[in-house]
């Protein structure tokens, strides 16, 4: 059996499969994961802050760019993980399969890391396509929890591999074979595969016939580079305007939707059409006093025009022009304290998007509006008519549509 494993490793060997390649790809993968983790934590906590956390309102595109990077880096992880697995593939057949307790830890941490990363980037990708229905679990909390499993197993993996990483970090001369501590004991033996029968026999016979890949390091990195660049070019158009023309895979296209802006959820799906179009619609504002404002009342307040993006957590984003009264002017009219958090509530019932809270720095911001128009048109019902919230540097999920009330929290 050991002989077979050795033979397998020998046949799988290729110039591109060496520790230096593994370290180089590992570095890129590690960087991509750290970028995803940092941007992911920002996105998570801005939606579910811990006590004492505060977030910036400038630059206005902070969330938009951060989330665009999050999704692009996540997509880049696909070719990088495949490349990393390719580079270390023969190592999966080491002899003996597990070497002592440290070896078990090493193998275990890799297995956990590979499995959790694949699940992580797959559910992340599905999320960008809005396939929430496939998850029988809350996406964000699961994605958040898994990121710690990944970082933990990755830290363990790096700690264990530190000697190899150190050795090959700067190694420009990369033509080094995978470690072969078993070389002396096992020379390739012709015909060692022949006696095997059954499925194992067939697998080994197939390997025996298949020539070992001779991919050079250079072409290997070229393939990984081209694959990564192609994926980003073809999908990042929904997050970054430069890639708009080549946006083939991105689920959202710039400029497609009412008033030239994509819709995330229609009024019909949210079951608010009747309430939103009702002449009885009023915005209820609860402070030390209570105000009920019709759309005409809102239009009678000083109107402001702002350029702010919708930046969806799913990665698509687009700049738009909004107009309406400032949130702070409405709050001041009911005697709201300037340091108060404001809760906005939608006509929509029973959705996690139906309500959101604005910390004081967002609520008082001069760019934060109760928007009544979008790109020069009366706000489309699917964009939140009669009135919606728009604020700088916030994820789309917090830009509540079809407002019904504003509440000054103590
Ligand atoms: N009431 C309500 N508001 C909502 C949503 C929703 O489903 N219901 N979706 C949010 C999400 S996830 C995004 S990205 C933006 C999208 O705004 P748009 O559909 O006008 O582009 O609206 C936000 N506001
Ligand atoms: Mo969204």
Describe the structure.
By secondary structure, the chain is α+β, with helices and mostly antiparallel strands. It has two domains: about 20-175 and about 215-240, Fumarate Reductase Cytochrome B subunit (Up-down Bundle), CATH 1.20.950; about 265-410, Alpha-Beta Complex (Sulfite Oxidase, Chain A, domain 2), CATH 3.90.420.10. It is built from twelve helices and eleven strands. It has helices at about 1-10, 20-45, 60-90, 100-130, 140-170, 200-210, 215-235, 265-270, 275, 295-300, 325-335, 360-365; strands at about 285, 290-295, 305-310, 315-325, 340-345, 355-360, 370, 375, 375-380, 390, 405-410. Strands 2-1-11-5-6 form a five-stranded mixed beta sheet. It has a four-stranded antiparallel beta sheet with strand order 3-4-8-9. A two-stranded antiparallel ribbon has the order 7-10. A hairpin with a 5-residue loop joins strand 3 (about 305-310) and strand 4 (about 315-325). Helix 3 packs across helix 4 (about 100-130). The protein is elongated, with a radius of gyration of 28 Å. Residues about 180-190 have low confidence and may be disordered. Bound molecules: ligand MTE and molybdenum atom. The site of molybdenum atom has 6 residues, from loops.
């Amino acid at each position: 059996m050991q002989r077979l494993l050795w033979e397998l490793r020998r046949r799988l060997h290729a110039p591109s499969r060496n520790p230096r390649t593994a370290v180089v790809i590992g570095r890129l993968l590690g960087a991509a994961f750290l970028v995803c983790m940092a941007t992911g934590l920002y996105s998570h906590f801005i939606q579910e802050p811990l006590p004492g956390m505060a977030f910036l309102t400038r630059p206005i595109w902070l969330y938009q760019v951060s989330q665009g990077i999050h999704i692009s880096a996540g997509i880049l992880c696909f070719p990088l993980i495949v490349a990393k697995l390719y580079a270390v593939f023969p190592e999966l057949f080491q002899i003996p399969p597990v070497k002592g307790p440290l070896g078990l830890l090493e193998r275990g941490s890799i297995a956990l890391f590979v499995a959790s990363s694949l699940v992580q980037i797959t559910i992340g990708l599905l999320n960008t396509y809005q396939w929430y229905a496939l998850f029988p679990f809350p996406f964000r909390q699961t994605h958040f929890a898994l990121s710690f499993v990944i970082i933990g197993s990755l830290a363990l993996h790096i700690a264990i591999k530190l000697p190899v990483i150190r050795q090959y970090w700067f190694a420009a001369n990369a033509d080094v074979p995978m470690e072969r501590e078993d070389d002396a004991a096992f020379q390739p033996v012709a015909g060692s595969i022949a006696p095997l029968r059954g499925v194992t026999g067939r697998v080994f016979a197939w390997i025996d016939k298949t020539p070992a890949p001779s991919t050079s390091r250079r072409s290997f990195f070229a393939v990984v580079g081209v694959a990564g660049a192609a994926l980003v070019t073809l999908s990042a158009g929904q997050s970054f305007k430069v890639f708009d023309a080549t946006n083939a895979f991105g689920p959202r296209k710039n400029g497609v939707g009412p008033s030239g802006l994509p819709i995330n959820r229609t009024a019909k799906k949210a079951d608010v059409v009747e309430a939103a179009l009702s002449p009885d619609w009023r915005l209820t504002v609860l402070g030390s006093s209570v105000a009920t404002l019709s759309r005409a009342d809102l239009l009678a307040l000083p109107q402001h025009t702002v350029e702010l993006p919708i930046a969806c957590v799913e990665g698509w984003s687009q700049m738009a022009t909004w107009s309406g009264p400032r949130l702070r002017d409405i709050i001041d009219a009911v005697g709201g304290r300037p340091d108060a958090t404001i809760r906005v509530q939608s006509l929509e019932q029973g959705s996690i998007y139906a309500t959101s809270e604005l910390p004081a720095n967002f609520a008082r911001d001069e760019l934060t509006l109760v928007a009544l128009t979008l790109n020069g048109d009366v706000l489309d019902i699917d964009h939140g008519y009669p009135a919606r919230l728009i604020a700088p540097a916030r994820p789309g999920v917090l830009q509540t549509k079809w407002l019904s009330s504003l509440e000054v929290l103590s």
